[in-house]
Amino acid sequence: MSSMDKNISPAVIKRLPRYYRYLGALKAKNITRISSKELSERMKVTASQIRQDLNNFGGFGQQGYGYNVENLYVEIGKILGLDKSNQMIIVGAGNLGQALANYQDFNNNSIGFQVIALFDVNPKLIGITVHGVEVHDIDDMEEFIKNHEIKIAALTLPQDQAPKIAKDLVSWGIKGFWNFAPVDLTLPDSVTVENVHLAESLMTLTYNIHSREDGEGAE
Amino acid sequence: MSSMDKNISPAVIKRLPRYYRYLGALKAKNITRISSKELSERMKVTASQIRQDLNNFGGFGQQGYGYNVENLYVEIGKILGLDKSNQMIIVGAGNLGQALANYQDFNNNSIGFQVIALFDVNPKLIGITVHGVEVHDIDDMEEFIKNHEIKIAALTLPQDQAPKIAKDLVSWGIKGFWNFAPVDLTLPDSVTVENVHLAESLMTLTYNIHSREDGEGAE
DNA sequence: TAGATTGTTAATCGATTAACAATC
DNA sequence: TAGATTGTTAATCGATTAACAATC
């Protein structure tokens, strides 16, 4: 209802955070206005694409002027849901889970994400504190989620455990998964899964490195 | 020359690791053959897409039979460059760098990736060992890369340092970057960059969570 | 006002899906 | 051989780019 989503394509959505990052950088440089043309040169995309993308959400610009940096930054933030509080838990307090808990890039109030608990089965980890956040017993997770009305869970646990725990988490109210386990989660349509498949990302890198080596003398 | 790359689209390349993962799982279940139709049902893509994708690289199947799982697994591994040794270094031995050094998913010989050194400026980190891999002084990086003929570097360092260090690394022989810094690296065309922008991935997650909430009653 | 730049429609391009002849 | 399933061409669909009238 609020944003009368006329089914925005995933390709557009994936580009929004990058616009947001560039606008943040412009803001930090005290640049107050920018045209789609100049932004397109900085970002190495077409000005057409920028205007098309933004116009999915409303007319943020002004003819003859361009876009107000501060305003556009705020608007894209709202579109992405960064104005809401986004508390999350991390399930699996191993190296990756702890790294995410420590990660300053998003884990600060200015962007609005906040890790409020880690969970693990390992008694050696339960009770320790990572970046001021406590590792809890995974058996206490249901109650914690319900008490704190958590909607987002990062999954940084072994592949074989991820599907079952994800299913439980959905029944306890989790609406979005940030999934680092190398497995595809099959969950109801009302639930969102954002995969970060690190091993797969690394494989596309090696593909590109090797294919460039081979194609050196290409036309 | 070797693979006479007829310019495979990035969309196809990004799907290959997922095929590889599914074939590995089939192999582990001792399934020896699979048709594009059955694989398409498991992976929730069209059989057409699977056949089109694979045929960019050669006729791996057999009419009336389907694909041999073991063979296809090996072939896709070769396409991705997993048969070659892929030694890499991690630049930035903070939480994320250490987590990657520890990450078992790719950091084992069976897939062919191997982290052989971490680098940092922090004297407190230099000399420690993470998952059997030593953290070196970043001043020793040039010599190390040249001695070991390293081609791949993971960048897990602060955003403001990434562009300069990436430039240096290129001059020392690095061909591919696995970039975790929230910045776009501008480098020569001969160099490959695979970005893992965690904060941006998390933002698309919140977008989807919130837009589903709003659109609940949509047709 | 004249100049600049948006918002938006139309044209192009590329990727996905469907269909089917080839063939194991 | 008959049945199954690929490899590949053709049709469709969606996303990107170009163009330009609207308008600040």
TrEMBL record, chains A, B:
Record's keyword terms, sorted: Cytoplasm, DNA-binding, NAD, Repressor, Transcription, Transcription regulation
Membrane recorded as keyword: no
DNA-binding region: 18-57
Cited InterPro entries: CoA-bd (IPR003781), NAD(P)-bd_dom_sf (IPR036291), Rex_DNA-bd_C_dom (IPR009718), Tscrpt_rep_Rex (IPR022876), WH-like_DNA-bd_sf (IPR036388), WH_DNA-bd_sf (IPR036390)
Principal localisation: cytoplasm
Pfam families membership: CoA_binding, Put_DNA-bind_N
Amino-acid positions noted as binding NAD(+) in the UniProt annotation, renumbered to this chain: 92-97
Segments forming domain CoA-binding: 81-184
Domain of life: Bacteria
Protein localization: Cytoplasm
Annotated function: Modulates transcription in response to changes in cellular NADH/NAD(+) redox state.
Quaternary structure and interacting proteins, as annotated: Homodimer.
Family of this protein: Belongs to the transcriptional regulatory Rex family.
Record's protein name: Redox-sensing transcriptional repressor Rex
Gene source species: Anaerostipes hominis
Gene this chain is encoded by: rex
